[in-house]
Design a protein that fits this description.
Helix content: 40-55%
Number of strands: 8
Strand content: 15-25%
Distance between the termini: 34 Å
Number of domains: 2
Number of helices: 3
Order of helices and strands: EHHEEEEEEEH
Largest sheet: 4 strands, antiparallel
């Protein structure tokens, strides 16, 4: 049973949907409405000139491209807002993250974690000070290495949480608390077992 869940940011999903809608409206204007864009060049009788025919073909090409990209972006955004899938879930066992291709998840048990914290992405070309969730593990070879939105740096998994509903700091704190609880639970179970063992 999940005790903590992090989804994709609904505001970011909404903004992607708005961007898709703007592209769709731009496509309609480019191809049909011509309220903002220039219509193809026509002569006095309303027939397209040779330049107007070239303009019309370009308008159809750009309008189709905007319509496909805008429609796809809007559909993905709406689907993401309706059918929400967690990016990260913490349960009694450990943490499960959606980091593999095909929308698959990866589970890291608490007993395999050596550290949990947040940090900055200092790789060249990274955005200005993006925060990452850093999870140290004892044996990184036990886990997949082909990840989306994360990478291994020695025995530390660096997870990009940009666009998630919680910050890397909040996730690290919650993961640290649940990891400490799991360690205390395991220690109590071992102690109880030792007491009852003759």
């Amino acid at each position: 049973m999940s005790s903590f869940r992090v989804d994709r940011s609904p505001m970011r999903q909404f903004l992607f949907g708005v961007a898709g809608l703007i592209l769709i409206l731009a496509a309609i204007d480019i191809v049909w409405a011509h309220k903002v864009s220039e219509p193809p060049t026509a002569d006095d009788n309303g027939a397209l000139t040779s330049r107007g025919q070239v303009d019309r073909r370009q308008d159809l090409m750009w309008g189709s491209l905007f319509l496909i990209i805008g429609g796809g972006t809007a559909l993905v955004s709406i689907a993401g807002l309706i059918w929400r899938q967690p990016m990260l879930e913490i349960d009694d066992d450990g943490v499960t993250m959606r980091l593999l291709s095909g929308n698959e998840t990866m589970h890291i048990p608490f007993h395999r974690m050596t550290s949990v914290r947040s940090g900055s992405d200092d790789t060249p070309g990274a955005a200005v000070n993006p925060r990452q969730l850093l999870i140290g593990v004892d044996e990184p070879e036990r886990f997949p290495d082909q990840l989306w939105g994360a990478e291994w740096q020695d025995n530390v998994l660096r997870v990009d949480t940009d666009g998630w509903s919680e910050t890397a700091e909040e996730i690290a704190v919650r993961l640290g608390i649940d990891r400490a609880r799991a360690d205390a639970r395991d220690a109590a179970a071992r102690s109880s077992l030792e007491e009852h063992t003759p």
